[in-house]
Structures are given as C-alpha cells and as structure tokens.
Amino acid sequence: MQWADRVGRRVKLRDLHMLLAVARSGSVSKAAKELAISHPVVSKTISELEYTLGVRLFDRRSQGVSPTMYGEALLKCGVVVFDEMRQGIRRVEFLADPTIGNLRFGCPEAMAAGLVPAVAERFSRQYPDVVLDMINADMTLKYRELRERDVEFLIGRIQTPFVGEDLVAETLFEERLLVVAGTESPWTRRRRVELADLLDQSWILSPPDTVPGMLASELFRASGLQIPSPKVITFSIHLTCSLLAAGRFLALLPGSMLWFSAKRLSLKVLPVKLPPQGSVVASITVKGRTLSPLAERFIDCARVVAKTLPSQEAIGTGKSPPVAHRSAKAQSRKNAGHV
What we know:
Elements (H helix, E strand, L loop, with lengths): L2 H6 L4 H13 L2 H8 L3 H15 L4 E4 L2 E4 L1 H28 L3 E8 L1 H4 L2 H12 L2 E8 L7 H4 L6 E6 L7 E9 L1 E6 L19 E4 L5 H12 L9 E2 L3 H9 L3 E6 H7 L5 E3 L9 E8 L6 H15 L20 H9 L3
Parallel strand pairs: 3-4, 8-9, 8-10
Antiparallel strand pairs: 1-2, 5-12, 6-12, 7-10, 7-11
Helix pairs in contact: 2-3, 2-4, 2-5, 3-4, 7-12
C-alpha cells in the first residue's frame, strides 16, 4: 500500500472522527445523530475508508455494528492521534499563557480524602486560574480511564511489582494500611493492641476483589490470622469514616490519608504492630504519551508533597501536618507577616 496514493491523501481526521463515533455508539444512525450529520454521509465515509484500506472495518448486524480486528487496530491509532492533537493544543495554550488551562486526572477515593487535596492546594497557589478536573478512578478496572485517554494520569496505590506493559508507574512513597477507629472508641485508650484481639470486633472492609480488599487479606494472612467477617463491606471512604466516627467500628485505611485527614475526620490510629506491606502510591501515565505542561507540574507538586511525609510509624501520633501542607489561608497569613 502506497502511503501517498492510498492513505496520505485520502484518510482525513474527519474520517477518523466518524470512525470513533460509530465504534463508540455501535450504530451508524446513532453516530450520525451524535455528529449532527446525515446517515448517508457517515455510511459513505466508512465505506470509502474500507475501500481505501482494502479491509472490512465493521461487521454489520441487525442490532448495529462492531469493529473487526482491522477496525480495532485503526481505532487504537485514532485514539492516539486525537489525544496527541489535544496535548499539542494544550502545550501551545500553555506557551501562550502558562497560568490558565484545564487539567483532568483521576484518583481513588482514599487519595481524594488525603494526599490529593494537599497536592491540589499547593498546585493551585502556583496556578490559581487552572481548573482541576478530578474524576473518581477505580484502580481495579485495569486503568480504563487512563488507557482510553479520559485522563492524563492517575495517582493511587498500586501493588509491587507493577504490571502494565503500556503504562509507567513512578513511585511517590510507600503506603501502609493502618488499623483505625473513631476517637470515641474505647480501643483508642489502649497503649498496645494486638491484631488478634480485634478479630471479633465490628469491621468495615473493602470488597475482596479490590486492591484494598486484597491488601487487607494479605495483611491478616501475614499475621497468621483469618480475615474477620466484616459487618460492613464497602469501597466508600465517606461511608467508612462516617461509621468509624460513631465509635463502634474498626477499619483499615491508608496511612497517607490519615496523616492529612485523621483529625478532621475524628479518627485515630490504633497502636497495632502490623507486618510489612508491599504497596506504594504512584503516579501512573501511558508509556510514550506526551503529557501537558500542567500535568507535568502537578506531578512535580505531588513529588514535593510526598517528600514531606513522615515515616508510616509516625503517622497517627497526633502531630500536625508539615508546613508544606498548611491551608492556603494559613499560608497567606504567614506571607502577610513578611510584607
């Protein structure tokens, strides 16, 4: 196939755009409606693409259309092409005015309740006019949002070694699950607690097929114990913290979240000695993908905040977070004193 004669002059971005719309909707009619153009135009474009490439891109059925293996291959290229164009435009916009823009990224709920607000606050002081568009990303769904280019990067907890041939994970810090209770719990008055002493308590645990759930199972197993039967099974940090505050429940929560939010959420880490755990918090990106300047700077802020975290053993001692994590209001007052 000659590039200039068969492809270079014939396949246009508009054609790829229609191809993606048809694949996404599973129907030529739905794609035409979504694109606000006529059904014959979309159908003709797909047919001409198939003629140009010499292969069938879609299987036609009464229920709609689905990509063939040739269509899937072209779709992957189309996603990359449009993603690189978006990133290129963002880079141009940044060069024109580095103080504005939109940054879309993802993180799980536990990060949104602890680390990410500290990073976002630091970033927003430097770029106050940038809009941060954060989605709640499920780190157990094979990083779907990242692979589909719905976000620029993810920040979250991963198990090591990291598996993802098309992804890159940069470790920010080691993470551990800690045993947590509400400040009203009688267990918070103990100077020493054994994990075995807590097996018959009211536990809140993550679903067993999630990363936190698997880490919890490994933690109890490494301690020579059976994982307790939970009273509540949930992936929701909000529900977990609300139940813990009542004083009856126990849970396993990540140390970084407790460092930033334990006092605000009326939580306390119990003095339970736990075995080593093999997980880290990392920034995850697509290998070879060009990041926007704003994404690079947000990840830089994450590196800075990560360096100020204490050891996991120091978390939950009642100390205040480092100066680097103080609120913007507190920082403003401090700066005003030096004017």
